Amino acid sequence: MKNHLNSNTKTALLYHAIQKKKLTIIIILAALLLITAVIATGIGSVYINPFEVIQVFANALFPNLVPAPASEISGTIILSYRLPRILLAVLAGIALAVAGAVMQGLLRNPLVSPFTLGLSSAASFGAALMIVLGPAVFGAAFAGSIAILGITFSAKSALLIISAFLFGWLSVVLVYIISRTKNTSQAIMILAGVVIGYLFQAGLLALKYVSNDDALREIVTWLMGGMWGATWQAIAILTPIVLVCFFLVEIKAWDLNTLSAGDDVAKNLGINVSRFRISGLLIVSFAASACLAFTGIIGFVGLMAPHICRMLIGNDYRYLIPASALLGALILLISDTVGRVILAPIEIPVGVIMYILGGLFFLFLITRGHGRYLA
Questions:
Q1: How buried is 61 (Cβ within 10 angstroms: 0-12 exposed, 13-18 middle, 19+ buried)?
Q2: Which DSSP symbol is given to 346?
Q3: Alpha-carbon dihedral sign for residues 324, 109, 335, 205
Q4: Number of C-alpha atoms within 13 angstroms, CB side, residue 102?
Q5: Which distant-in-sequence residues (6+ apart) come within 8 Å of 356 by Cβ?
Q6: Is 208 exposed, middle or buried, given 0-12, 13-18 or 19+ CB atoms closer than 10 A?
Q7: Can you give 248-288 as a three-state secondary structure string?
Q8: Global pTM?
Q9: 3-class DSSP state for residue 342?
Q10: Integer distance in angstroms from the first to the last C-alpha of the chain?
Q11: Residues with Cβ within 8 Å of residue 244, at least 6 apart in sequence
């Protein structure tokens, strides 16, 4: 009896030690993200030291307690130009990384990402469709302005955002409709996503073929991905979307843990697997497509961040989801900062940086890990 109690005590202590380690990693990632955001905000054609950046933030939040910096131009540069870009990179990184982690859990496939269900191809098609046909369909109104949720955008930007978002989410709805006839098995959903992705890719190629030089250049630039759409209006729209979707999937972390044991186990424990899988995919696709509508196509964040976090803290989704969110934001923020400054004043699209990082990362997994992390 005493040995049994000792064994239980040791197990409990080991469990608490593991949980403490996971929480420590999440706290470290949050601290690194905060530090990186402050440093990145100060980097640019005009360098602003981190202490002045913090002073600008503090003055904006507590104007009666913290004095404004000596240089007024610093506040203008940070609050009007750099901070929206930093926040957009963070929000997009969170959305894409969480979408990747959740999709991999729902479909029990480590190579699933926000783009596996044809989301990127569909969003690209929607954006290209508006770039090529927008002037002909909307005429002079295409050069005007439009309000979204009470926030004013140029009509061209607003319509491009709406089109990319709607087509991105449409791809997941189509996958759901197709797979519903096949009992929503993960294999059928992945295959349906691949097929739908090819169909939208064909439409994108057709639009590029018939577009003029200016429209073709704009399509190619959008496909590279970047933070050029960073405005406070974009942040106001994306922040509630990303945060609500994050909390909706985080409260389902236990169900994701259960599903990792198999569909039959999850069903025996009272989970409606088909409904849970579809609702989860729709939620994370909603957040990812909303961000991609503002940033263009950015790959590999949804694959890299969950993989790295699994190596650090394991497969417990209570910790994997927030850790992936923080790491995804950190990766995308660093990549965007490198793209801004490495060849300044020329700016490299962050999508290009991410393809390089993603390729090197998975090459490392294959050569050094012998593919065990991809199994």
A1: exposed
A2: B
A3: negative
A4: 34
A5: none
A6: middle
A7: HHHCCHHHHHHHCCCHHHHHHCCCCHHHHHHHHHHHHHHHH
A8: 0.88
A9: coil
A10: 41
A11: none
- CA 357, CA 338: separation in Å to the nearest integer? 12
Give me the phi and psi of 343, to 5 degrees please. -125, 30
Q: Per residue in 145-160, pLDDT tens?
A: 766 656 666 777 778 8
- Residue 346, φ and ψ in degrees, nearest 5: -75, 135
CA-CA distance, 25 to 270, in Å (whole number)?
A: 32
The helix, strand and coil proportions of the chain, stated in percent and rounded to the nearest 5, come to 80, 5, 20
Q: Which residues contact 369 (CB under 8 A, 6 or more apart)?
A: none
159 contact partners, CB below 8 Å, separation of at least 6: 130, 134, 138, 142, 146
Q: Which residue would you say has higher pLDDT here, 208 or 138?
A: 208
- For the chain, give the longest Cα–Cα distance: 84
Q: How confident is the model at residue 233 (pLDDT cuts 50, 70, 90)?
A: confident
* Of residues 57, 265, 43, 229, the one with CA closest to residue 148: 229
Q: Are strands 145-148 and 151-154 parallel, antiparallel or unpaired?
A: antiparallel
